[in-house]
Known about the structure:
The chain is an alpha+beta fold. It has 5 helices and 5 strands. It has 2 domains: 14-48; 56-153, no CATH class.
Amino acid sequence: MIPLQLSSGVRLPRSYLRMKVSRQKKWLIAGAALLVVLVGAPILRRRLLALPMDRCRIHRFDAAVWQDVARARSSEAVRGCMVDDLLERVKLHGRSRAEIVALLGEPPRSVYFTDFDFVYWLGPERGFVSIDSEWLVIKLDRAGRVSQAKLVTD
């Protein structure tokens, strides 16, 4: 082994340089592997284990899409995808019955949640185990204005 002399006068064996390169290669391989895992894992998860919210392509509330009964009842279940934006951006509290019908459409009759005036089916419950349905329920006060709007599961 032939030593290598640095400008400071310190002598290092040549194997030290090989060890450094080897360590750099290990870090490079580890970084590449981490990148593959970070990018590949979500793609693989969607292919092998689809979750209820994977169906969502629309997240922003759109009244016309919400009122499209065919899309609301399809496997896409667009209402479940938009409800968070609806409750966050659109103030429902204090609106009249007519305003709710104009915004969300007249809900079909439901035997569920009879204590509420409006009951909208949103789709399968969001989460890892989806065995129930999610619903938006709205209650009107005596004056016919929204006093409560919340998400429930059956």
